[in-house]
Amino acid sequence: MLQVNVRKSRNWVVLLMLVTVVILAACSAEGITTADAPAATEAPAATEAPAEEAMADEEMAEDEMAEATVEATEGAMEESAAAEGAMGATTFVIDADQSEVRFTLTELLMGNPTTVVGTGNGIEGDVTVDFDNYSQTNISPIVIDASLLATDNNMRNGQIRRAVLQTNNPDFQYITFTPTAVDGLPESATVGEPFDITVTGDLTIRTTTQPMTFDVTVTPVSETEIHGSASTTLLRADFDLNIPSVPSVADVSEEVELAFDFVALAE
């Protein structure tokens, strides 16, 4: 009887020990799970940060590409507008048929004060206008066929051709003005609105060359036509323009106005 009870007691002890081990194991398992739970929940946060940074970098790259595209488009539009607005240079050639050269002086003709005007249309030259930069406008030499100049008196005309200008000599047929400087050119011009400039250069009559300045008024009529007038005053003595002694003529003025009106057409 005693042995039986001892065995039963031992069995109960073993059983209690087993139950205790199971309970401890269960508690240990729950402790591990509970302790590891924060790590399990924090893991996504560690992967979310790089993802957010990648998205931000991608958005920044897209913004930069869009900005670059806009800048490129605006630049192309500006270049296109500049190209369309640029007109470049155009050469206008003087049309002799629509132009006139003249000289004016005074004298006493048979004791009467007289204004003498000689005219002709023998004039050549051209003007190259840079519409993008008027300061670069260039004027070619202006050549006047002096043999075509005539007044209202045939006797006077003969004296001019033989003795004064001596245009009967082919070597003296032409009067040439070679521009060296143009002052007063505007930054821009408007069709129909005249503007004034001065043109300085060398005037050659026969064998004599002297510096002269013409006052010029220019009127742009259209993109293909310009009108203008120019004038200067010279002294006969500076060019050795002597007047023959004629009984009916006296007191010929020392000053002579040389002028021309011109129409120039685009080539």
Summarize the model shown:
The protein has helices at about 1-85, 155-165, and strands spanning about 90-95, 100-110, 110-120, 125, 125-130, 140, 140-145, 175-185, 195-205, 210-220, 225-235, 250, 255-265. It is of the alpha+beta class and about 270 residues long.
Structure description:
The chain has 2 helices and 13 strands; from the N terminus they run αβββββββαββββββ. Strands 1, 2, 3, 4, 5, 6, 7, 8, 9, 10, 11, 12 and 13 form a 13-stranded antiparallel β-sheet that branches. The protein has 267 residues and is an alpha+beta fold. Residues 1-15, 27-41 and 80-85 have low confidence and may be disordered.
How many angstroms separate the termini? 145 Å
Class based on secondary structure composition and strand pairing: alpha+beta
Counting DSSP E segments of at least 2 residues, the number of strands comes to: 13
Based on CA atoms alone, the radius of gyration comes out at: 52 Å
Sequence stretches where pLDDT stays below 50 over 5 or more residues: 1-15, 27-41, 80-85
Characterize the biggest β-sheet: 13 strands, antiparallel
- Shape category: rod-shaped
Query: Element order, helices and strands?
Result: HEEEEEEEHEEEEEE
Task: Output the number of helix runs.
Answer: 2
Beta-strand portion reads 35-45%
